[in-house]
Amino acid sequence: MENFTAFNPTKLHFGKNVTDNLGDTVLECGKRVLLMYGKGSVQRNGIYDKIIKQLNSVNAEIFEYNGIKPNPLVDDVSEAAQIGKLNNIDVIVAVGGGSVIDSAKITALAIANNTDPWAIMKYKVKPTTTKPLIAVLTLAATGTEMNGAAVLQNRETGEKIGYVTSLNYPKHSFLDPEFTFSVPKNYTAYGIVDLIAHALEAYFGEGNASLSDRFVEVIIKEAMEYGPLVLREPENYDYRANIMWAATTALNGLTSYGRKSGDWGVHDIGHNISYLYDTAHGATLSIAYPAWLKLQKNRIPERITKLGNQLFGTNSAEETTLNLEKFFISIDCPVRLSDIKIGEDKKKEITDQMLKNKINGMVHQFSDEDRKKIVELMM
Ligand code: NZQ
Ligand code: ZN
Predict the structure, then answer these.
(1) If 0-12 CB within 10 Å is exposed, 13-18 middle and 19+ buried, where does residue 257 land?
(2) Which of 7, 55, 194, 355 could form a disulfide with 141 if both were Cys (CB 3.0 to 4.6 A apart)?
(3) pLDDT tens digits, 96-120
């Protein structure tokens, strides 16, 4: 086992009606609130009204920034930060999925350090402080509600990248599984893929960490058991709750303690596809993971076989990949680019982008030949 520091400062409030205390929690951080959300789902499903009621109950002064899109843009973060600075806000309340909460994390840093958000994302400036962030999660997938990561894209530089800092952890996160009842089937399934992918990125990292491996295995088993059930019964509280908690634990440190790092090569491939075609994050991962496993099957056969043995009772790297792919298909997720109507004509574009951005894993590094092969395997 590698040395490690366990650190997670987020106070997570989980369960039915947990936002009934949101107002008081906000008040602990101040009255001037920047409220951030996406493109309107929170207004359609009534969550917005609940949050506004809470903020009004403590006489908060509310400044809004909405319209954050999936695969969020740094431009929105710049604008939100302007509004935050202009109005001298005390706290950000972010209501939404990963895109909204990630945008809010970088907005908080940009306001507190009075700096350009992209300079932060590119590690060109080192933020020293941040504004308190209170997250209200509406989609189970990314784990952003209890981690230090944020992912944004920049249409000018041609990148979708992640930024990690201990300052990014939300001060509080509110997770009411009922808030996810309205998530459409496709995004529910992408969330299930995403949480499995997070567990796998840890599993294929560096360092022997027996207990962390076991956490990976049970988190994926939980997702494979309750994923299909929640898709059949989207308003079943316990199914939604099990998936929501699994998604948090897949990327809040639990699966990584005792390792040097995760791998994250599949995520890098996925971000590249999202950047090019605005593909939903989880959909890129159900395509990229089988391809990555096929690339690695003769390089780390024992590791892949062990995973398949624990998850599916199989005994080879090929069978592991096949079964994972079968699971993704069973929840209606794409496993080839052609499934999302990206044809052979796009092969060069994707390959060029992969080569230009030097798409890579932290542990299992790609040569240019590997990058080309991965594109072939995804077609
Ligand atoms: O924009 P609105 O109208 O709110 O609709 C959203 C959006 O269209 C909708 N939605 C969210 N909650 C809903 C709902 N619809 C109905 N009912 C609800 N309760 O779902 C759509 C997708 O939302 P989004 O926030 O984009 O999804 P997700 O949570 O999967 O976040 C994806 C983003 O997070 C990044 C991804 O790269 C991607 O940009 N990630 C962040 C990570 C992190 N910070 O740790 C790690 C991940 O690996 C990932 O990279
Ligand atoms: Zn992910």
Answers:
(1) middle
(2) 194
(3) 999 999 999 999 999 999 999 999 9
Measure 66 CA to ligand 1 centroid, in angstroms.
14
pTM of the model: 0.98
The DSSP string of 269-301 is HHHHHHHHH---HHHHHHHHHHHHHHHHTTTSH
Q: Which atom of ligand 1 is nearest to the CA of 42?
A: 4
Query: Quick one: pLDDT band at residue 300, thresholds 50, 70, 90?
Result: very high
Please identify, by atom number, the ligand 1 atom nearest to the C-alpha of residue 70.
26
Give the position, in ligand 1's atom list, of the atom nearest the Cα of 197: 48
Q: Give pLDDT tens digits for 13-63.
A: 999 999 999 999 999 999 999 999 999 999 999 999 999 999 999 999 999
pLDDT of the residue at 237 = 98
Q: Are 239 and 233 in contact (CB under 8 A)?
A: yes
Place 146 in a pLDDT band, splitting at 50, 70 and 90.
Answer: very high
Distance (Å) from CA 150 to ligand 2 centroid: 11
As a whole number of angstroms, the distance between CA 126 and CA 113 comes to 9
Closest by CA position to 263, among listed 194, 197, 195, 201: 201
Which residues contact ligand 1 via a Cβ below 6 A? 38-42, 45, 70-72, 96-100, 102, 138-139, 141-144, 147, 149-151, 179-180, 182-183, 187, 191, 194, 251, 267, 281
How far lies 290's CA from each of 81, 131, 164, 193, 207, in Å?
Answer: 39, 39, 26, 12, 23
CA distance 260 to 264: 13
Amino acid at 280: A
Question: In angstroms, rounded to a whole number, what is the distance separating the alpha carbons of residues 65 and 359?
Answer: 32
Domains in the chain (CATH in brackets) are 11-180 (3.40.50.1970), 185-378 (1.20.1090.10)
**What pLDDT shows up at residue 137?**
99
